Amino acid sequence: MANKIAEARAELSLANRIVANEGIIDAFGHVSMRHPDNPNRYFLSRSRAPELVTPDDFIEYDLDSNPIREPGVGQYSERVIHGEIFKARPDVMSVCHHHCPAFMPLLANRIDYVPVFHLGAVGGIKPPFWDQHDEFGDTNMLVIKPEEGASLARAMGKGMMVLMRRHGVTVAGTSVKDCVFRTVFSARNAAYQVQALSIGSNIESLSAGEANLAGSISSKTTGLTRSWEYWSMRVAKAGGVPAAKKAAPAKPRKPAVKKSSSKKKRR
Ligand SMILES: [Zn+2]
User: Fold this and answer.
1) Cα 197 to middle of ligand 1, angstroms
2) 260 lies in some domain
3) Is 33 exposed, middle or buried (0-12, 13-18, 19+ CB in 10 A)?
């Protein structure tokens, strides 16, 4: 069990680094994971930039987003996003919240997200919008109160993505890898959609049938593991993964000492 939790923490740490390395989250944003052995708990990092998150940074929370143990470190203020979605959606095992630049033009103009290529189907067709102001009036725009998180979870409904007006995006997944896959490819799709809108208004999105079929490809092929391996390699190349522990260097053999009167120490 200890190994299982350690592996889960390592995977979640890498997930945070991948999403950061792909330009979707920066100093802000986070990826969480439901506890592998206890569906009423979840893991989320202490408050730090996701690119720096290590397996030791995760705090264990209950679904009301209270830490199980006093963490003694700063916590993310928007953790109720994760807790309330895990509470409302037993099928969701991982959540990513981000403010990816690719989405911001759509969110500002309230333009529906539509899949413009097959991998964009991971976000569905026209995922719902949620506007914090509708229910809560003027706020600092952060989703901090449990009722705000619950409202967001209701807006997400049974889908895997909800667009937060003038704020960002929240993506769900049936596993950490699935959540990362949906997060990265929906962000790519948003960028393509905005670029397409800048050169023409006749965007042709996937049909509902195509989106359904294309959206489930990742779970039926090696697409997900292939992507994870690729993104992990990119994190490693960027120096984002601690190097594997190197074996202790062998002791250098003592050179054969020639007795020579002329050998003097040089400085
Ligand atoms: Zn946010």
Assistant:
1) 25
2) no
3) buried
What residue numbers bound the domain in which 119 lies?
A: 2-237
Span from the CA of 11 to the centroid of ligand 1 (angstroms)? 22
Is residue 144 in a domain?
yes
Active site residue 51: no
Q: The domain spanning residue 28 has which CATH number? A: 3.40.225.10
Give residue-wise pLDDT tens across range 149-203. 999 999 999 999 999 999 999 999 999 999 999 999 999 999 999 999 999 888 8
d(CA 178, CA 172): 8
Q: Edge-to-edge, what's the strand order for the sheet holding 129-130?
A: 58-62, 41-45, 30-34, 94-98, 168-173, 161-164, 129-130
Distance 78 CA to ligand 1 centre (A): 7
